[in-house]
Amino acid sequence: MGLDYFYNDMPEHLLEMAKSLVKIENGKITVLTDPSVQHCPLRDSLYGCREESKATVERVLKNHIEELGMYSSNRTLSLDSKSVSFGASEVIMDAMAEGLVDAAVVVCEGAGTIIVSRPDVLQAVGAHMTGLISTQPINEIQVGLEKRGCILLDESCTIDQIGGLKKAFDHGFMRVAVTIAGSRAFEAKTLRELGLEKGARPIILAVHTTGISDAEAGALADECDIVWACASKSVREIVGRRSKLQIGISIPVFALTDQGKRLVLSRVLHFSGSLVIHQATLPKVPDEKQPYPLS
């Protein structure tokens, strides 16, 4: 099926991939800046991107549109396959299956901030989601999500994780996971305080952390339960040293609290491959295994 099928009547989305700024407008992918990440072991494994460029970013996004209908009215909204060993959606998906999480506040193109309570829908939304900055409504996505039990923050695609958590509490969800972008590290404290007001403790997961400052990494370490290191030097040095558990070495995932450890270990329980677990001083990040450059 050709891309033209998906490109009809598609609105504008702004996102980051491999720390490259990308605009998708009326289905046309425009890579606005060169990726600052030159090589990512995860993207190499998933998409065959040995060396990142505008071309690799465009190719991966085209594949997402063709295979999953992302950024289109034909968007896949239920998915059971787990693309990444320890990605955020995979961790939350398994936590839902184990009853550790009732709902997750996440972001979806065409819908903005949403509240998801079904593991298969959570995985479809998050499996290949990159750093979504802004998005415009896609009616078919919004209707499809609502049919699958999701709650939209609003119909205008607002991205507001604090508002999403408030709405999750208003709908009776108390064991809530919330994802935030590393660049929005300042939101973590507000999310934590909101939970205290409601007598709950949201599980805060920070993703898309490449390029954040030391201060932002410190804020994540103070308040988050799990932080993905991406290609961030600050996360490896600041969050890594304060973490209780690390899973993975090329793209480390750091659990900073007992709740964070429970979610990661729940994913370990569901992981079908072989793993080695041993005591170590953290972070454990061998130079030859890291993305480059770290920033």
Order of helices and strands: HEEEHHHEEHEHEHEHEHEHEEH
Structural class: alpha+beta
Strand arrangement, largest sheet? 7-5-4-8-9-10-12-11
Tell me about the largest β-sheet.
8 strands, mixed
Overall mean pLDDT: 95
Number of strands: 12
Helix content: 25-40%
What Rg is obtained from the alpha carbons, in whole angstroms? Answer: 18 Å
What does this entry show, briefly?
The protein has 295 residues and is an alpha+beta fold. The chain is built from 11 helices and 12 strands.
Element layout with pairings:
Elements: H1 3-6, E1 13-17, E2 20-25, E3 28-31, H2 41-47, H3 54-68, H4 88-97, E4 103-108, E5 112-116, H5 119-126, E6 131-135, H6 139-147, E7 151-152, H7 161-170, E8 176-181, H8 187-198, E9 203-207, H9 214-223, E10 226-228, H10 233-242, E11 245-247, E12 253-255, H11 258-270
Parallel strand pairs: 4-8, 8-9, 9-10
Antiparallel strand pairs: 1-2, 1-6, 2-3, 4-5, 5-7, 10-12, 11-12
Helix pairs in contact: 4-5, 4-11, 7-8, 9-10
Give an overview of the whole structure.
The chain is 37% helix and 18% strand. The protein is of the alpha+beta class and 295 residues long. The chain has 2 domains: 1-74, no CATH class; 78-276. An 8-stranded mixed beta sheet has the order 7-5-4-8-9-10-12-11, sandwiched between helices. A 4-stranded antiparallel beta sheet has the order 3-2-1-6, covered by helices on one side. β1 (13-17) and β2 (20-25) form a beta hairpin. The longest helix has 15 residues, at 54-68. The radius of gyration is 18 Å and the shape is globular.
